[in-house]
C-alpha cells in the first residue's frame, strides 16, 4: 500500500533528511587516504547521536539477508555497488567510494547516498559519478504530480544507458516514510507512462546505481550483504529522498 504523507509529515521527514545530509557531508569531509571504513561509520554515527536520531540501517535484516546489517552506513568501494559493510579497510589513493546513510527522527526516515573519489581521481570515475548524478537529477525532474513511476524509471535509465553504463536489474529506489523501505518500488529503468501514478504526498527514495563496464551482472560477496560487479568494473551510487508535491519535487535530503 502506498501511503500519502501530509504536508506536516513531509516537513518532519525533511528534518530526518537533513540529519542524513549532515552525516554524509561529515563522512565526505573525513574520507581520506589511510582512513578506515569503520572510522567513517563512526563519523556518521556521531552525527546521528548528536541529532538524537536512530539508524534504520543498524540491525536491519530483510528477507534476503542472513545476518543483520552491522553499521549505520553502507560503504561500497570500487567494484562494490551497494550494501558494503564498513570494515577495517583503509582507503587508498584513487578509491571510488559510495556511502549510503539513513536516519530515523521523530518516527520518520530519511535515506541518501553519495559517491566520490579519494585522492587523485581517474577521469573514468569522475564521468561515472557525474552521470549517476545527472541520472538522479533526471529522475527528480520527472517526479511530478501526473507522471507515473515509469516516467521516473525511464528518465533515470535513459541517462545511464546513453552513457553506456550497466544498471542493476533487481535493485532500485523505493517509497519511504515511517519505514525506510515502503511501497512503491522505483526501478532505475522502465517505460514511460506505466506504473503507479504520482500524487501529492508520495515520498520516494530515488537511487541510480551505475556499473562502469556496461554489463548489468552482479553478485553477492561472502559477507552476505555487499553486491559487486561481475566484471570487476567500478560502480557509483547516488540517492535522494524526494517528496512529490503540487508545487514540484522537494528534495528532503538536500545537502
Q: Can you give a write-up of this model?
A:
This protein is an alpha+beta fold. Helices cover 28% and strands 24% of the residues. The protein is built from 4 helices and 14 strands. It has helices at 7-30, 37-51, 123-141, 149-162, and strands at residues 73-77, 80-82, 96-105, 108-117, 166-167, 173-175, 182-186, 203-206, 209-211, 218-220, 227-229, 235-237, 240-243, 250-251. A 5-stranded antiparallel β-sheet has the order 7-6-8-13-14. Strands 1-3-4 form a 3-stranded antiparallel β-sheet. The two termini are 30 Å apart.
Write a concise synopsis of the structure shown.
This protein has 255 residues and is α+β, with helices and mostly antiparallel strands. It has helices at 7-30, 37-51, 123-141, 149-162; strands at 73-77, 80-82, 96-105, 108-117, 166-167, 173-175, 182-186, 203-206, 209-211, 218-220, 227-229, 235-237, 240-243, 250-251. The relative contact order is 0.20.
Set down the secondary structure blueprint.
Elements: H1 7-30, H2 37-51, E1 73-77, E2 80-82, E3 96-105, E4 108-117, H3 123-141, H4 149-162, E5 166-167, E6 173-175, E7 182-186, E8 203-206, E9 209-211, E10 218-220, E11 227-229, E12 235-237, E13 240-243, E14 250-251
Antiparallel strand pairs: 1-3, 2-11, 3-4, 5-9, 6-7, 6-8, 8-13, 9-12, 10-11, 13-14
Helix pairs in contact: 1-2, 3-4
Outline the biggest β-sheet.
5 strands, antiparallel
Strand residue content: 15-25%
Mean pLDDT reading: 97
What is the CA–CA distance across the termini?
A: 30 Å
Helix content: 25-40%
Determine the number of helices (DSSP H or I, runs of at least 4 residues).
Answer: 4
Low-confidence blocks of residues: none
Q: How do the SSEs run, as a string of H and E?
A: HHEEEEHHEEEEEEEEEE
- Structural class from helices and strands? alpha+beta
Amino acid at each position: 500500500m502506498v501511503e500519502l504523507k501530509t504536508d506536516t509529515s513531509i516537513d518532519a521527514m525533511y528534518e530526518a533528511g537533513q540529519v542524513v545530509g549532515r552525516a554524509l557531508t561529515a563522512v565526505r569531509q573525513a574520507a581520506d587516504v589511510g582512513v578506515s571504513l569503520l572510522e567513517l561509520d563512526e563519523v556518521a554515527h556521531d552525527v546521528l547521536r548528536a541529532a538524537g536520531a536512530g539508524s534504520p540501517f543498524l540491525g536491519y535484516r530483510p528477507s534476503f539477508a542472513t545476518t543483520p546489517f552491522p553499521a549505520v552506513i553502507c560503504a561500497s568501494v570500487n567494484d562494490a555497488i551497494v550494501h558494503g559493510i564498513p570494515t577495517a579497510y583503509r582507503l587508498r589513493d584513487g578509491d571510488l567510494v559510495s556511502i549510503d546513510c539513513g536516519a530515523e527522527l521523530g518516527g520518520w526516515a530519511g535515506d541518501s547516498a553519495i559517491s566520490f573519489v579519494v585522492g587523485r581521481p581517474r577521469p573514468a570515475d569522475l564521468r561515472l559519478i557525474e552521470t549517476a548524478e545527472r541520472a538522479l537529477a533526471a529522475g527528480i525532474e520527472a517526479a511530478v504530480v501526473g507522471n507515473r513511476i515509469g516516467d521516473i524509471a525511464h528518465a533515470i535509465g535513459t541517462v545511464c544507458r546513453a552513457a553506456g553504463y550497466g544498471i542493476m536489474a533487481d535493485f532500485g529506489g523505493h517509497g519511504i516514510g515511517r519505514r525506510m523501505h515502503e511501497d512503491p518500488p522505483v526501478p532505475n529503468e522502465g517505460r514511460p507512462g506505466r506504473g503507479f501514478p504520482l500524487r501529492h504526498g508520495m515520498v520516494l527514495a530515488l537511487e541510480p546505481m551505475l556499473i562502469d563496464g556496461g554489463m548489468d551482472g552482479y553478485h553477492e560477496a561472502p559477507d552476505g550483504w555487499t553486491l559487486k560487479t561481475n566484471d570487476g568494473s567500478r560502480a557509483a551510487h547516488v540517492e535522494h529522498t524526494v517528496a512529490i508535491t503540487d508545487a514540484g519535487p522537494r528534495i528532503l535530503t538536500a545537502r
